[in-house]
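FYI - complex with zinc ion, inputs then prediction.
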Amino acid sequence: MFGKCYSGSMRILGIETSCDETAAAVVSDGRVLQSNVIKSQIDIHAQYGGVVPEVAARSHIEVMLPVVNKALSDANATWDEIDAIAVTHAPGLIGSLLVGTLTARTLALIHKKPLYPIHHIKAHVYANFLLEKPPEFPILALIVSGGHSQLVLFQSHSDYQILGRTQDDAVGEAFDKVAKILGLSYPGGPSISKAALNGNPNKYPLPKSKLQNPLDFSFSGLKTAVLRAAQHSVGKDYTFPSHQLAALLTDEQRNDFAASFQKVAVETLVDKTETAYKQYSPASVVIAGGVAANRELREQLSKHLSIEINYPPMELCTDNAAMIAALAYYQADIEPATDPRKLEVFPSLSI
Ligand code: KG4
Ligand code: ZN
């Protein structure tokens, strides 16, 4: 049950349910994507302006097995042709993680497959190993998702150090919260970048936080600055309820706030990545996580760093199971498979 199968290629079935995407994928040798099925719950949660954990868990249950079956049939794979199962066990919403891990544990027992528990945030970095030109160590990774903002330096698959992390809100969370203030739809990242296309990024000067460790992040002050400036722009003071603001903003103000916020958020990410790049001279730089889908961030990073950056396609930036299966291939070299009866979930485990 342990270790890699060396008779030809190794096909891994990945399962991901840490937040609001139910996903399964088959990846061969950590490199070749054979199927990638993602069932998003965005439509269900959009009406609440954010993910409702209980609803997310229930929705995962409804589609989990059809998603796994589709991943197998899209890859043209029978269970006999699957060498291992990998599943996200940390971090994430506890109810959501439980659906994926219980499914994976059961399938591993029934089909007698080695099972690998995978860290979701580390896996985001491994979406880059699915590219035609995979990154080379040492790798500087800017990890920017709804729950995390981190700069991590990987010396190898097993040796990595966190250079900086967020002290409060993650950058994706800031996009989501600012979108809510402005009355833009959930998730905030795509709707803010769309609104920003028609806005003036220099209209509202917003602050950048200064931190003791220059590679740490803080986005909560920026979010509050948008709120205060928006209250001011409609002639109200700080006591005015944020949920009533959107109705008073004009489209022009909304677009200008979106552009001004995005400019500062992106500049902050680019400045810190550039600082880390100069300090550590990595062989590759990668961006991982949902915010990596941001076009402005991609353009600015490419402009500021004297190194070519290859970006995963959008569907591999946001949550997916291909990255889970990709990481599992390398993890199988370092760690033994886990006992399916004992695999646990860790909702807030750091990378
Ligand atoms: O990695 P991900 O799919 O889920 C987590 O692990 O959190 O990231 C979701 C986050 C959300 O906060 C969403 O607003 C943000 O990624 N996001 C974006 C864009 N697309 C998604 N942020 C900025 N620009 C985008 N185009
Ligand atoms: Zn994620």
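DSSP finds eleven helices and nine strands in the chain. The chain has a mean pLDDT of 95.
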